[in-house]
Design the sequence.
């Protein structure tokens, strides 16, 4: 769509320009207000205050019509909405601006004007009070589909704005200001939800899991999730970071036949992030360090299924070679 360009130093018009009547907006507004004698300002009279209220309502309907026309960039439309707190610093017009703002904000909450896409891909409009404020960026960055996000966050009665608006700082600022708190979704909410069964099922998909961890890493939030079961183990189950060894293959190649008994990070996650500086720091701080003795004592010796594999002569030779190479003391383990 076409980009609407803001007007710098915009003033009010009372048919002719009232050159001193600057409300701090970035659009021109022509009104029927009564000007002063020199016609360079507006009179502080009741009629003009009523017109300020009418102007606030008409401003909303202008914004709404621009959105519905689908002819202009949405971000440029929402840039037209003033920062009312900043505008009211022009103290001589504060009461006029408050009246304009009050009427505008009544309609903001009552009218359906935010474009959304439903589950069938159809576009319609919703009230701002029904719009989900995804502050995590999961939907904006296509980490999670809209349908999955709404289902997993238990928000089936509410809607996400169209993708173009999620990328608009002006709109997201407006949403932050006017959206009810219960519509906010932040990383704390994700932490609470990610242990639930449906979320865990979603995370067990390798592609979903990789994108999710990548997003947390890029958002500098991964450390907040270290104690959450979001890290995929070799066989596909989810673990907390400190319950997994980072790299089995590099350290335990001689006992590959015991791989399934040693919880360790899946190859796809490890290879996806091994060149990421932030990941390497996280890895060093949170995953289990290689410790041959702990691996044998915690994962092998007391596991009957694992020990049964040592009845195979080749496996047994490889196992005791691993024990010797890593100076593991088995003297306290009678099964040895």
Sequence:
């Amino acid at each position: 769509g076409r980009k609407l360009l803001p007007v710098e130093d915009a003033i009010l018009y009372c048919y002719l320009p009232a050159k001193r009547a600057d409300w701090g907006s970035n659009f021109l507004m022509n009104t029927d207000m009564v000007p002063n004698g020199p016609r360079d300002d507006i009179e502080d009279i009741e009629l003009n205050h009523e017109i300020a209220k009418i102007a606030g309502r008409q401003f909303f309907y202008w914004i709404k019509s621009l959105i519905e026309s689908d002819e202009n960039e949405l971000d440029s439309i929402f840039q037209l909405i003033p920062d009312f707190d900043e505008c009211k610093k022009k103290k001589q017009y504060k009461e006029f601006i408050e009246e304009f703002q009050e009427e505008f904000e009544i309609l903001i909450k009552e009218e359906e004007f935010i474009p959304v896409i439903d589950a069938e891909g159809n576009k319609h409009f919703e009230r701002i009070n029904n719009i989900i404020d995804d502050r995590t960026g999961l939907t904006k960055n296509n980490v999670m589909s809209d349908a999955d996000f709404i289902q997993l966050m238990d928000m089936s009665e509410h809607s996400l704005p169209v993708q173009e608006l999620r990328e608009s700082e002006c709109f997201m600022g407006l949403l932050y200001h006017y959206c009810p708190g219960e519509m906010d979704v932040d990383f704390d909410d994700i932490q609470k939800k990610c242990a639930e069964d449906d979320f865990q099922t979603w995370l067990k998909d390798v592609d979903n899991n990789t994108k999710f961890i990548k997003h947390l890493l890029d958002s500098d939030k991964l450390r907040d999730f270290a104690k959450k079961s979001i890290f995929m183990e070799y066989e596909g189950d989810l673990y907390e970071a400190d319950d997994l060894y980072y790299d089995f293959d590099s350290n335990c190649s001689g006992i590959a036949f015991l791989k399934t008994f040693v919880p360790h990070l899946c190859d796809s996650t490890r290879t996806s992030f091994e060149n990421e500086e932030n990941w390497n720091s996280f890895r060093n701080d949170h995953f289990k360090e290689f410790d041959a003795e702990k691996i044998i004592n915690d994962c092998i010796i007391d596991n009957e299924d694992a020990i049964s594999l040592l009845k195979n002569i080749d496996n047994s030779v490889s196992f005791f070679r691993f024990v010797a190479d890593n100076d593991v003391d088995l003297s306290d383990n009678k099964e040895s």
In short: The beta strands are 12-14, 16-18, 29-30, 114-117, 123-126, 133-134, 184-185, 231-232, 238-239.
